[in-house]
Specification:
Shape: globular
Structural class: alpha+beta
Strand content: 15-25%
Radius of gyration: 33 Å
Distance between the termini: 105 Å
């Protein structure tokens, strides 16, 4: 590249890069016609540079002797420095991207900012005094200075104003604005928000004169850099009020603006087409207004009174507080409702009809009954169950000029509650609750703490842990607390913003706790995974079933002895073992297990532990564990466990006799504990995990010499498969089955059934979107994360060879071949394989090992779905693989010769010294652990290090072998251990590395897409960055260059938007009757033939079932969304895949997607049982049907045949009733569904469930009809024979 850098001296020191760009654009772009250039202006420096992609363009610019800038002539000259080669590559990529953009693609859209002068800024709420919709101000900030403006930028409304010497900045992202009400008397915007704005104080801006000068300089492209840095605030300062007290509930903001050019600016604003704008002049109301602060004080006092004095169940009080605290109802309204309840309690008490035990449950009895709803039904004295109150969240809309005033009156809300209770008494939801409990889930309260507010959520399904298992009747005294951004995401690191005040707020919440409906919930602890997710457990004190008073101290003391651990991080990690998700537990005392302690296996010098974290168990104990676990199969031979103070793996040792468990105390026992009755199961090796590559692994393999064509070949194979999925129904069915989409209802078989009936699923938009969403997710993982499946590879738990059979560097790889996708998996005997563990950053984190197979009847042959490491040699192999051990780590093994045989180089593994945890020299307190939690949130750099490593590994010639990359790998190891050691990385070392302003293209975000109308994925039009919107900071704007290494080539090989348009997204071929109308016509016709025509009689039952199903779906959309105010779509719930518009899910979204898929299967199992009027078995993995030839046994799947031949005898009457109810459900599924409060409903997936049930019941009915006909023929023949 022949670029040129131009040096520009004598610039004003406070000129910004944006300002320089603004002044150069008319000269370079408009006059000279040059587009490929960028400028750079350094902070507080009097010079800048312009870099031209093409040397000739730079020389043409230099031909101008000087240009006029800010009142003075400026001369330029050729720079002494050559242009940054990565800057030139970034510019070249930008130019090429513009040239190759599809002709049919819309041109980049450019948003113009719209700026209004602000007269005042206030927050408040809507209410209806005397039936008149109005806005009531709770707090106001009078402004009116020349610098006070509201700027509608690209994606965000930014309000800046001066208030009593402080420069305030308020950011309101457009996605958080439900509606803007425009008024002309006075000219104002009133904003209804989904969530609280972001508040900032600009540092060193107390002087109004300087502020006004700064505004003038900004308009000229100059900025006083001292005003750029800002503090994130948890509330806005106010001279006479406490904004924090009302911030979470007063979510309506009004901006009164200057009338100057108001209408023309408003027209420009409407052209943005991003905001919902309505017009309404609020009436001037003098009487009947209420104020949030007063209402909240009365409401909080009444809540405490209800909890202590009246038998109002805590779970009901929790929901009432959530309605107020989350901004759904005014506190005055809910206060009225609570008073009515209390009056009913008084009346019931005086008449003697009330149970005195209800109040006891608030203080010290079972909370489980209330939290899961299985027992808390209404009584004569208490008319509402918790479900009736919780359903209000899905029924209440935002107040607005078009919403009737009666909607929010206490009388109307009371009528909602009564109707909800009547619906609940039908009993349709009880089975879903039981289904969750049957799968070892517990309903747990959630609390979300953001920079500005505290919101109450749940109860939501949560896997059990040791603490919850200890107190099964007091679950409601525990709560999961999440610290996050206003939208539920992690707080975004920004070098221009200080979060010190937010960390201080979080620390205050951790120390003081959260007050909920009369209880004070305080910090209890956190697991290792919840620390990384910024979540903790809180508890309120209570009397347990033995009347023992349980506090933080008693609960922790009962877990074990921690007084000798002097490191806050390590102490928190050890206590955190009790918070690890352990869905299942086995009673060792009941089984009579013999617990034995054995020594660790070490190297000859004792410095290496080969058995680090792994013990053994006998076959009888293994079989007892298998019998206690649902759906585990009979092949699981290794388990990840928690037991007392021990953690790690237990693997089968077939030489042990009796019920035996062997523990290695040195490497497995982390603290002393007497709590050893139950063996808790975290995970197990029940099947092999398909191996997928990732970017770090690919880069190291490239540096090892693995051939480029191997990477391209395995990616192309997967890409061909994905492109062909929607090409034929057979491919679609195979894909849906492998992805386990709506597995409980066998969705893939539903598509196949449609095909057999001559119906194409592609005639329905929702069915198409289901398939397309899952395919697009896989394409994006392939392109943006390089998640490339390797058929000749597997991922397995690691354990140790207890018998000394394996030699040094030998491994034994064993797995069930039928459970791993692909065919003809070989026995890996005497074969070189690649083995690694993620995350792999050091070049030595991937090693070559020899796989061998023990002889028949050797004890190792009893193992399955694990990789067995040798106990011989100078150093254990797991520790060489990214510092692994055997306490539950999983390892990746590749035996594909294309990769193994081209691995020409093998690097020495890293060997980092062990870091001693930070020692405070005394017993660790609760405050020490909360301090560490906040410190970890504020300083965790793990993601930053991993990203910088990928950039430098691409930029450096030596790749991961480069010294800087090795240093980053070591820092990454330190950052991984930070959660336990308490020792953060040396930030100065990180800052001293090569700057990474320019990034390889494979780190660029995906083309933004969103789910339109809740059912269809739409790619957004590309958008050029606007210089006018430089303050609209949704994050750092990185520059990307074309990478010539393998990751860049793999990235460019997939054109995501082209694949979407040509291969995935197919036009819906709808004509004539819809799919559902065709199915309804078909089933009705069959019902006539079978004489089962009574389905109209059960239409009301069907409507109740659909309402219950839609309620469950709505709950899932809210419970599994990061942002509790704006739920997921039904499409995401049905597919079990949370959609991220930027391309790839966050870690939290990945975890939630797994749980969401399970939750939908629970909902589907429950509603299928309601429709088919029988208990439905859980859908097992149908591994034997992996090939899927498209045929069903006797017209029914094995699952349906199993249900038909189940243990309970099914009468003709029951079966016919189920078929008729299925038809009725299919009929009502076509009707438009309810509107769900603040979000429009019209859910569609009930059609699928109802249709699948109808087709299943039809097959069963036809089979029974044929049996009956056969029996009649036999009877007739017998009668004829006897007659003769």
């Amino acid at each position: 590249m022949d670029g040129l850098e131009v040096f520009i001296p004598d610039l004003p020191p406070d000129l910004t890069q944006h300002g320089l760009n603004t002044h150069l654009t008319p000269i370079i772009t408009a006059e000279l016609g040059i587009t490929d250039w960028v400028c750079n202006k350094y902070h507080r420096k009097t010079f800048g540079t312009v870099t031209f992609l093409h040397r000739l363009h730079g020389e043409r610019f230099l031909a101008r002797p000087r240009f006029f800038l800010l009142g003075q002539w400026v001369k330029c000259r050729r720079s002494k420095n050559n242009p940054d080669p990565f800057l030139l590559r970034s510019m070249l990529k930008t130019a090429e991207d513009l040239r190759i953009r599809d002709e049919d693609e819309q041109l980049p859209t450019r948003d113009k900012k719209v700026v209004f002068e602000v007269r005042s800024f206030s927050c408040g709420h809507y209410e209806y005094p005397d039936g008149n919709f109005t806005y009531t101000t709770d707090m106001e900030w009078r402004t009116g200075g020349a610098v006070d403006v509201a700027k509608f930028a690209r994606d965000t409304l930014i309000i800046t104003f001066n208030y009593h010497g402080s420069s305030i900045r308020v950011e309101i992202p457009y996605r958080t604005i439900h509606e803007i009400i425009v008024a002309e008397r006075p000219t104002s915007f009133t904003l209804t928000l989904w969530e609280a704005p972001r508040f900032f104080q600009v540092i060193d801006s107390g002087n109004t004169m300087l502020l006004e000068l700064g505004s003038l300089m900004s308009r000229m492209g100059i900025s006083n850099r001292n005003t750029v840095q800002r503090n994130r605030l948890s509330q806005l300062p106010h001279v006479s009020g406490n904004h924090e007290a009302i911030l979470g509930q007063s979510l309506v903001y009004r901006i009164e603006v200057s009338p100057s050019n108001f209408n023309s600016k408003l027209q420009n604003l409407k052209e943005k087409e991003k905001l919902t704008v309505s017009y309404f002049d609020f009436p001037h109301v003098l009487r009947g207004r209420t104020y949030m602060a007063d209402g909240l004080k009365l409401f909080t006092d009444l809540l405490d009174e209800c909890y202590k004095e009246f038998p109002v169940h805590f779970d009901v009080l929790f929901q009432f507080q959530a309605l107020v605290q989350n901004g759904y109802l005014l506190p005055q309204t809910v206060t009225d409702l609570l008073r009515r309840l209390c009056q009913m309690m008084r009346t019931a008490r005086t008449t003697g009809s009330s149970s005195n035990k209800a109040n006891e449950s608030n203080g010290n009895a079972s909370g489980l009954s209330g939290i899961d709803g299985t027992k808390k039904h209404a009584s004569p004295s208490f008319p509402f169950s918790v479900g009736a109150v919780k359903k209000l969240f899905s029924q209440l809309p935002f107040p607005g000029p078009d919403i009737d005033a009666s909607t929010f009156t206490p009388d109307e809300i009371w009528s909602y509650l009564k109707a909800n209770e009547n619906s609940i008494r039908q009993g349709t939801a009880k089975e879903l609750i039981s289904e969750r409990i049957g799968q070892n889930l517990i309903m747990v309260y959630k609390v979300q703490v953001t920079p500005t507010r505290i919101t109450l959520l749940g109860p939501e399904p949560e896997a059990k842990n040791r603490i919850l298992r200890k107190f099964p009747n007091h679950i409601d005294f525990f709560a999961r607390v999440q610290f996050c951004e206003e939208d539920g995401q992690d707080l975004f690191f920004n070098t221009k913003v200080s979060f010190d005040l937010i960390w201080k707020r979080f620390k205050t919440v951790l120390l003081r706790g959260v007050h909920i409906a009369g209880r004070q919930y305080m910090f209890l602890g956190f697991s290792h995974s919840s620390l990384r997710a910024h979540g903790v457990w809180f508890m309120a004190t209570f009397f347990d079933h033995n009347k023992h008073f349980q506090t933080y101290a008693t609960v922790i003391a009962d877990l074990g002895k921690f007084n000798k651990i002097y490191s806050p991080s390590r102490c928190a990690a050890r206590i955190g073992q009790a918070f690890s998700e352990t869905p299942f537990a086995v009673d060792l005392e009941e089984l009579g297990v013999d617990i034995q302690y054995i020594n660790d296996v070490k190297s000859s010098d004792g410095s290496r532990v080969f058995s680090d974290g792994v013990g053994t168990l006998s076959r009888p104990l293994m079989e007892a564990i298998q019998a206690a676990l649902p759906r585990s199969g009979d092949t699981t031979t290794c388990f990840q466990i928690r037991w007392g103070g021990a953690k790690g793996m237990l693997a089968l040792d077939d030489t042990l006799e009796g019920m035996v468990m062997r523990i290695r105390p040195e490497s497995m026992v982390k603290f002393e504990s007497d709590d050893t009755r139950y063996l808790e199961i975290c995970d197990m090796g029940k099947k092999p995990i398909p191996l997928v590559l990732n970017r770090q692994m690919i880069k190291i393999l490239e540096d090892m010499g693995v051939a480029e064509d191997w990477f391209i070949r395995v990616q192309n194979r997967e890409m061909r498969r994905l492109r062909q999925i929607t090409a034929s129904i057979h491919n679609t069915i195979t894909f849906l089955k492998r992805q386990k989409v709506a597995e409980q209802i066998s969705f893939y078989k539903f598509i196949r059934r449609l095909q057999k009936l001559g119906i194409d699923y592609r005639e329905d938009a929702f069915l198409c979107s289901i398939v397309e969403t899952v395919v697009l997710k896989e394409v994006r993982l392939l392109k943006h994360k390089a998640r490339i499946p390797v058929e000749k590879g597997v991922t397995l738990f690691g354990i140790m060879d207890e018998f000394g059979f394996l030699e040094e560097d030998e491994i034994y790889v064993t797995f069930e071949k039928s459970k791993l996708p692909g065919k003809n998996h070989p026995d890996l005997h005497d074969q070189l394989v690649l083995i690694t563990r993620s995350p792999a950053l050091h070049p030595g984190d991937i090693q070559l090992s020899r796989a061998v197979v023990p002889p028949p009847r050797h004890p190792l042959r009893s193992l399955s779905n694990c990789v067995v490491f040798s106990q011989k040699g100078k150093r254990d192999l797991p520790s060489q693989l990214s510092g692994g051990d055997l306490d539950g780590d999983i390892y990746n093994i590749i035996w594909d010769k294309g990769a193994v045989e081209t691995s020409l180089r093998e690097f020495l593994p890293a060997d980092y010294p062990r870091v001693s945890p930070r020692n405070i020299g005394r017993e660790v307190t609760r405050e020490d652990m909360t301090d560490f939690f906040v410190e970890f949130m504020a300083t965790d750099q793990l993601g930053v290090i991993a990203t910088k490593h990928m950039i430098l590994a691409d930029r450096k010639t030596a790749g991961t072998v480069d010294d800087e990359c090795k240093l980053l790998a070591e820092m990454h190891s330190t950052a991984v251990d930070y959660s336990k050691s308490g020792i953060p990385i040396d930030i100065n070392k990180l800052r001293g590395l090569t700057p990474t302003k320019y990034r390889p293209e494979f780190l660029a975000p995906a083309p933004p897409a969103h789910i339109k109308d809740k059912t269809e994925i739409v790619f957004e039009a590309p958008r050029e960055p606007s210089l006018e919107d430089d303050e609209d900071e949704s994050g750092p704007r990185h520059h990307y260059y074309r990478s010539e290494k393998i990751l860049g080539k793999l990235y460019r090989a997939i054109d995501e938007k082209k694949v979407w348009k040509k291969d995935i997204h197919k036009p819906v071929r709808s004509h004539g009757a819809s799919i559902w109308e065709q199915l309804l016509l078909y089933t009705k016709k069959k019902s006539v033939e079978l004489g089962l025509c009574n389905w109209p009689a059960v239409l009301e039952d069907a409507r109740r079932i659909r309402e219950a199903y839609d309620d469950a779906i709505w709950s899932a959309t809210m419970e599994y969304s990061d942002n509790f105010t704006k739920g997921l779509t039904e499409l995401e719930v049905f597919t079990g895949c949370i959609f991220n518009k930027s391309g790839v899910q966050t870690r939290r979204q990945r975890d939630k997607s797994v749980r969401l898929k399970d939750e939908y299967d629970r909902i589907a199992k429950w509603v299928e049982g309601l429709i088919r009027k029988k208990e439905v078995a859980p859908r097992e993995d149908d591994e034997a049907d992996e090939a899927d030839d498209g045929s069903d046994s006797e017209g029914m799947s094995s699952f349906e045949t199993q249900t038909y031949k189940g243990s309970r005898e099914i009468s003709h009457e029951d079966t016919f009733t189920a078929f008729e109810l299925s038809i009725a459900c299919l009929q009502v599924s076509i009707e438009k569904s309810n509107r769900f409060g603040r979000t429009s409903g019209d859910f569609q997936s009930f059609k699928i469930v109802a249709a699948q049930c109808a087709l299943t019941e039809l097959e069963i009915a036809c089979a029974q009809h044929e049996i009956a006909l056969g029996a009649n023929l036999v009877a007739a023949s017998t009668e004829t024979r006897f007659a003769h």
